[in-house]
Amino acid sequence: MVDGSAGQREWRVTGMDCGTCAAKVRGAVERLPGVADVDVALMAERLRLRLDESQSSPERIEKAVRGVGFGIAPKGVRPEKPKGGFVLPEGAVPGAGEIPESEEQDEAQPEDAPALSWYQTSKGRLVLGTGALLAMAWASRLVLPVEIAHWAFVLATLVGVVPVAQRAFAMTRAGMPFTIEMLMTIAAGGALVIGEPEEAALVVFLFAVGELLEGVSAGKARDSIRALSKLVPKTARLEVGGKTREVSAETLQAGQVVQIRPGDRVPCDGEVIDGTSGVDESPVTGESVPSLKESGADVFAGSINAEALLRVRVTKAAEDNTIARIVRLVEEAESARAPTERFIDRFSRVYMPAVVGAALLVAVVPPLAFGLTWGEWVYRALALLLIGCPCALVISVPASITSALATGARNGLLMKGGAVIEAVARTTHVAFDKTGTLTHGKPRVTDMSVLTGSEDDLLALAAGVESGASHPLGQAICAEADRRSVDAAAATGGRALPGKGAEAVIGGVTICVGSPRLADERGALTGDIRNRVASLEAEGKTVVIVLRENVPQGLIALRDEPRADAADAVAQLHTLGISSVMLTGDNPRTAQAIAEGLGIEHRSELMPEDKVTAIRDLTTDARVMMIGDGINDAPALAAAHVGVAMGSGTDVALETADAAILRNRVTDVAGKVRLSRATMANIRQNIAIALGLKAVFLVTTVLGITGLWIAILADTGATVLVTMNALRLLFFRPSGASEAPGEASRDIQKTRPEHASATT
After folding, report:
1. C-alpha torsion 382→386→389→392, nearest 10
2. Per-residue pLDDT at 746 exceeds 70
3. Could you please report the per-residue DSSP string of 679-720?
4. Rounded to an integer, what distance in angstroms lies between the CA atom of residue 231 and that of residue 225?
5. Angle, CA 30 vertex, CA 78 and CA 722 arms, to 5°
6. Among 252-256, 422-426, 574-578, 714-718, which is the least confidently predicted range?
7. CA–CA gap between residue 456 and residue 117 (Å, rounded)
């Protein structure tokens, strides 16, 4: 399927279970002429590349991938059954690479179909087959002469190793000779040559078991990501001509109106136009406390209506709703590989040839130099080949990163790839924007000081000037007038005074609503007014002065209240050893009052370019994370080592910065750091497991203490241990809360069984 970019194509590749599988797919296609920018995502099962079709056709790409044992289908087409390495490659024997239609239908399931049981897969069948043959061979040794039982083990070995060898040679033809399949083929064949068929058969069986376990582990990790997309219901109740009918949620378009009953999952991103209800947003943001939704409020696809019927106007098509964009972000994040992962990849390319060379030396040097037994040292060399396979090492980083991304997405903490996770883990300083980040971003009128007339008169003048204003202070003044049922004075010729206020003509005279600085410029800031302004600003309030023909009429004080969890967030960061600073354009007194209440350092009166300068000053000797609203703080977000946007699913929050916090909870900043540090600790554990086990068994293998079957068991065991350790991150709680995200939603569903079908 061709996307909007000329020459870019995307496929879904099935059968990839570990990092080496992704490397095989990449190696199979990147050598083809006309291929560039190859991106293989293991967990998303995605192959994306740029293709010059005058040099290579899409069919040639697909043939190359199938040739190394994987299934491939264009994006949007039903997934193809993976070859899995256990059927003959195309062209080896006429018709051997073809998949019987009935069998393909068994395994090429739609994405939302129930997963196949392990014994229904080709890898599962190989385990059962080789296991049965091995058991029969052992049984034959009890009742048949040794010479005949010997051939039973040879048969068991050949049946298991032939498909592995086919895949090994296919990858060799593709320019990838150093693969686990080639090592297995050499080890099993060598064991047969030196008269160890029983051990060869056991090694082949254990290898098949290891392949199966890798597949099961990879499937579990993928399921955690795919579960996100399943949060959106399949159907929606659409209003058409005064009636409702059930339609596919994927067909909803902006502007349509849907009904959402109590207990139903919200099928779209939209705006409430009728009804009042608590909505559980934990499936989307991880916030377990239901959020009150009434007319004008936004709702997100995948959240659950808890109390009463809501009518919602669709604002985004299915492919652009919050859940779809979160899933897309998590999948795309795989392409932003962590520096540690890139290093491991480079290391493994050198490591594999080095292991093969070392095994060759172990096989020939002792017999030639010291006259030792050939059979014994060849056996040790074969075991060395198996234990030296880097599968566990290669998967150690991406497995942890993928689990962390999935956990973060479930908790409303989005990060664009492993590189961001590493950067967050190294953070030493956090810089916060004030408005909309540490505070709610919605100031309200707190005080009115009248110099002439009444409060209602003062408010009517101010609201008249600010009618239709987009500035938060102007909107707050108009909102206060509405709350008090004060009619705004009729105004004409309104205009903004950038950075200072606004003015308009009311009753034939010019009325101005502006900052104390503007009043001072116009000579209206008397000593008494100056003292009142200073007193209010000392309380963290922003003051505007209403002027009538430059004569003060009164003062209006407003305050943007800090978020309830802001002080706790700063304290949590301090506990983590991270310093915090607030960057704001407010005046020094207001900034100081807010900062003192939160226990945070501050820098005030900063223009956007000043914030960039402040960030650059910090980054000279610290690792800085900038938290902002993702819009007016974009330059500062870009200047920091990590830019994090606050916002409940807004386009900017999901697409502008390196990371996003969906719940608008400041404490999630500390949660993001905890998750990143836990991920890096998990990666270090994985690398230690992979290298530690190999170091131990490399020594014991060379010394002759352990043999072939122990070698393959150690290699398989290391891969499984690394994968299972990475999967522990799926259960990590960044906030330390005891309740898992989504538990509240499950409780609601349990209490409303009559709507169960609508919420699945």
Report:
1. -160
2. no
3. HHHHHHHHHHHHHHHHHHHHHHHHTTSS-HHHHHHHHHHHHH
4. 11
5. 70
6. 714-718
7. 72
CA pair distance 578, 532, nearest whole angstrom? 38
Question: Do 532 and 522 meet the contact criterion of CB atoms below 8 Å apart?
Answer: no
**Token pair belonging to 147:** 């010479």
Reply yes or no on whether the pLDDT at 182 is more than 70: yes
**Residue 597: pLDDT above 60?**
yes
Minimal CA–CA distance to 708: which of 152, 137, 157, 21?
Answer: 157
Average pLDDT of the segment spanning 232-243 = 89
Structural domains of the chain ordered from first start: 8-114 (3.30.70.100), 235-319 (2.70.150.10), 444-559 (3.40.1110.10)
Which pair of structure tokens corresponds to residue 564?
A: 């309830």
SS3 string, 97-138, reads: CCCCHHHHHHHCCCCCCCCCCHHHCHHHHHHHHHHHHHHHHH
Looking at residue 245, its amino acid is: R
pLDDT band at 44 (very low <50, low <70, confident <90, very high): confident
Kindly give the pairing relationship between strand 291-293 and strand 277-280.
antiparallel
**What count of other Cβ atoms lies within 10 Å of the Cβ of residue 174?**
20
CA distances from 439 to 442, 500, 518, 561 (A): 8, 22, 25, 6
Q: What's the mean pLDDT when you consider all of the chain?
A: 80
Residue 445's SS3 state is strand
Average of per-residue pLDDT across 4-18 = 75
Report the candidate in 95, 71, 94 with the shortest Cα–Cα distance to residue 82.
71
Which DSSP string do the residues of 201-234 spell out, in sequence order? HHHHHHHHHHHHHHHHHHHHHHHHHHHHHTTS-S
Q: What is the mean pLDDT of residues 734-753?
A: 42
**Is there a contact between 208 and 200 (Cβ–Cβ < 8 Å)?**
no
Residue 368 neighbours by CB under 8 Å, 6+ apart = none
> Residue 116 has what pLDDT?
63
CA separation for the pair 273, 68 (Å, rounded): 54
CA distance 490 to 474: 16
| 659-661/270-274 β-pairing | unpaired
**309-316 mean pLDDT:** 93
| 91, burial (CB in 10 Å: exposed 0-12, middle 13-18, buried 19+) | exposed
Neighbours of 538 (CB within 10 A): 12
- Residues annotated as catalytic (active site), given as ranges: 433
Helix axes 418-425, 339-370, angle to 10 degrees: 100
Separation of alpha carbons 544 and 525, rounded Å: 12
Phi, psi (degrees; rounded to nearest 5) at 91: 90, -15
Distance CA 451, CA 446 (A): 17
Structure tokens at 529: 């007014």
Which helix (H) or strand (E) is 559 found in, with range? strand 551-559
pLDDT digits (tens, 9 = 90+) for 77-111: 877 766 543 333 333 333 333 333 333 333 444 44
* CA-based nearest residue to 671, from 412, 330, 418: 412
pLDDT at 646 over 90: no
- Residue 296's SS3 state is coil
Asked whether 664 and 647 are in contact (CB, 8 A), the reply is: yes
* CA dist 411 → 543, 648, 659, 688, 732 (Å): 38, 12, 13, 28, 10
Over range 546-574, report the average pLDDT.
92
DSSP 562: B
